């Protein structure tokens, strides 16, 4: 292809701002059904993201990690755009808050009863908190 | 006539007031600038969400091809028997007619929808206080009122009045976090899906730029067309008000015009709409279902961001006027004071002269 660098343009967009807009060799994404890695020239793809870490490999600034919670990604051959509800750098994570959220999630889960929607919501909260904690722990 | 000392004291006090209003104006101007930036930096996300939903809508066959029926509950329209009204005002006063205008628009809306049951969600302290004084707070048969926001138990609603206050969110505007707005947005979507409400409206101060503001009533549910705001009613600013805003913005060093966003918007519009066949990790229907409530949240979030910016702009203008008025007052008092002083001197000279003449 015309672009000899074989790099992807990765953009991470949250409701509040465009958090990152940079070039990288590869991106790891926490899709809902498991992690996937995207390289230059990937086939177009739309996927929902679960809670987890987005990792950029081989960027100018080296490896970069962002913790995201529930989002949406569009992959095009030379571009990856991530819409995330929230995205944090590992050092920005408030572990106490995440712990608190985790407990709240467990509480919701216990109270969910037979309602599948509540159950789903509780699981969402738990996953999000666990991913945050894991991401913070990996940095330490 | 007042004596010189009195006048001097009064001038000093007005000067102090002017200092305060001036400081408040500068603070509001700084906050306005920040709020404006936030509103703008949130735009790409909203735009991308709109384009992806738009493109999914075609692929996901939201409308049943055979019967033309709508498959997603948030898109279905029903006769408006129960309506939710979200009122977004400011938390604080000293902002001119900002809060009053919004509340006025809200009451107008309530007047027009007398025949339906209305629930009110108040965001912002000023509006909440006013609304709570007028209408009863919602009551439930078994659970107490504080628990209504936890959807874990579904208490039976005990409607006593046609208009009731269903919830308020103190402090939501102070630190505007997407997470919190998301909770509210989700709960509104859920209420719509469970047919507790048949439509949802938001009253807020729309803020496109300092000079392009208006109070609008926007319908957020059901969604008729994605990406097109459904304005049910709007009150434009008066020309005079606009001029004042422009002057205040100029003197505080805030650009009154909207920054150019065309390029970013163009880019965002392309999101998810390429002319290629995407691989879908999840079925498009599923994606659409999960994304739609988020769209409702984004609408609310932006309404709040704009409202906050509008509040600061209104306060800045009000404080600019107050500063000008204080200056005028100081001028007129100084004039009076000088006159009184001169009169006194003239008097004294007359006394001396007539005293000398009498000798």
Short description:
The complex is a heterodimer of chains A (140) and B (359). Chain A is an alpha+beta fold and 140 residues long.
Nearest-integer average pLDDT of chain B: 82
Specify Rg of chain A, calculated over alpha carbons.
16 Å
Strand content of chain B: 5-15%
* Largest sheet composition of chain B: 6 strands, mixed
Ends of chain A: how far apart? 40 Å
Structural class of chain B: alpha/beta
- Which stretches of chain B are low in confidence, meaning pLDDT under 50 for 5 or more residues running? 143-153
Map the helices and strands:
The complex is a heterodimer of chains A (140) and B (359).
Chain A: E1 8-13, E2 18-24, E3 26-31, E4 34-39, E5 45-49, E6 52-59, E7 62-76, E8 79-88, H1 95-111, H2 116-139
Parallel strand pairs in A: 1-8
Antiparallel strand pairs in A: 1-2, 3-4, 3-6, 5-7, 6-7, 7-8
Chain B: H1 4-41, H2 43-59, E1 82-88, H3 98-112, E2 117-123, H4 125-134, E3 139-140, E4 157-158, E5 163-168, H5 178-193, E6 199-207, E7 213-221, E8 230-236, H6 239-252, H7 262-269, E9 279-280, H8 284-358
Parallel strand pairs in B: 1-2, 1-6, 2-5
Antiparallel strand pairs in B: 3-4, 6-7, 7-8
Describe the protein's architecture and organization.
The complex is a heterodimer of chains A (140) and B (359). Chain A contains two helices and eight strands. By secondary structure, chain A is α+β, with helices and mostly antiparallel strands. Chain A folds into two domains: 8-90, ATP Synthase, domain 1; 93-139. In chain A, strands 1, 2, 3, 4, 5, 6, 7 and 8 form an eight-stranded mixed β-sheet that branches. The longest helix of chain A has 24 residues, at 116-139. Chain B is α/β, with parallel strands linked by helices. Chain B has a single domain (15-321), classed as ATP synthase, F1 complex, gamma subunit (Pyruvate Kinase, Chain: A, domain 1). Helices cover 54% and strands 14% of the residues of chain B. Chain B contains eight helices and nine strands. Chain B has helices spanning 4-41, 43-59, 98-112, 125-134, 178-193, 239-252, 262-269, 284-358; strands at 82-88, 117-123, 139-140, 157-158, 163-168, 199-207, 213-221, 230-236, 279-280. In chain B, the strands form two sheets. Chain B has a six-stranded mixed β-sheet. A two-stranded antiparallel sheet of chain B has the order 3-4. In chain B, strand 6 and strand 7 (213-221) form a beta hairpin. Mean pLDDT of chain B is 82; it is low at 143-153. The chains are: A alpha+beta (140), B alpha/beta (359). Strand 5 (45-49) of chain A pairs parallel with strand 9 of chain B.
């Amino acid at each position: 292809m015309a672009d000899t660098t074989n790099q992807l343009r990765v953009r991470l967009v949250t409701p509040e701002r465009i958090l990152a807009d940079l070039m990288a060799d590869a991106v790891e994404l926490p899709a809902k059904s498991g992690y996937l890695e995207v390289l230059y020239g990937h086939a177009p793809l739309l996927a929902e993201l679960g809670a987890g870490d987005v990792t950029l490999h081989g960027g100018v600034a080296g490896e970069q990690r962002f913790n995201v919670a529930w989002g949406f990604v569009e992959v095009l051959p030379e571009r990856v755009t991530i819409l995330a509800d929230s995205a944090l750098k590992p050092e920005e994570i408030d572990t106490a808050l995440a712990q608190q959220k985790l407990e709240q999630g467990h509480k919701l889960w216990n109270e969910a009863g037979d309602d599948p929607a509540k159950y789903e919501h509780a699981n969402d909260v738990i996953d999000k908190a666990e991913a945050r904690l894991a991401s913070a722990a990996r940095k330490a | 006539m007042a004596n010189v000392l009195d006048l001097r004291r009064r001038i000093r006090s007005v000067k102090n007031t002017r200092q305060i209003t001036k400081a408040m104006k500068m603070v509001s101007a700084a906050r306005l600038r920040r709020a404006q930036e936030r509103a703008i930096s949130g735009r790409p996300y909203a735009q991308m969400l709109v384009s992806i939903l738009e493109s999914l809508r075609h692929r996901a066959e939201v409308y049943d091809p055979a019967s033309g029926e709508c498959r997603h509950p948030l898109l279905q329209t029903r006769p408006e028997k129960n309506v939710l009204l979200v009122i977004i005002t400011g938390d604080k006063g000293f902002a001119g007619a900002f809060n009053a205008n919004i509340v006025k628009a809200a009451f107008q809306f309530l007047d027009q929808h007398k025949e339906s049951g209305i629930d009110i969600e108040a965001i912002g302290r000023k509006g909440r206080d006013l609304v709570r004084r007028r209408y009863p707070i919602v009551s439930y048969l078994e659970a107490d009122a504080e628990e209504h926001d936890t959807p874990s138990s579904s208490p039976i609603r005990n409607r006593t009045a046609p208009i009731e206050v269903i919830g308020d969110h103190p402090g939501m505007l102070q630190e505007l976090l997407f997470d919190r707005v998301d909770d509210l947005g989700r709960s509104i979507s859920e209420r719509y899906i469970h047919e507790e409400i048949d439509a949802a409206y938001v009253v807020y101060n729309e803020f496109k730029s300092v000079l392009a503001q208006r109070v609008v009533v926007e319908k957020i549910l059901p969604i008729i067309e994605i990406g097109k705001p459904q304005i049910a009613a709007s009150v434009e600013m008066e020309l005079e008000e606009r001029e004042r805003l422009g002057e205040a913005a100029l003197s505080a060093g805030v650009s009154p015009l909207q920054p150019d966003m065309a390029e970013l918007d163009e880019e965002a519009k392309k999101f998810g709409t390429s002319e290629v066949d995407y691989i879908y990790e999840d079925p498009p229907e599923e994606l659409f279902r999960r994304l739609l409530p988020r769209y409702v949240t984004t609408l609310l979030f932006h309404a709040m961001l704009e409202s906050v910016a509008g509040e600061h702009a209104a306060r800045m203008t009000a404080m600019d006027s107050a500063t000008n008025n204080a200056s005028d007052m100081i001028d007129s008092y100084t004039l009076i004071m000088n006159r009184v002083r001169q009169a006194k001197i003239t008097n004294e000279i007359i006394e001396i002269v007539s005293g000398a003449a009498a000798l």
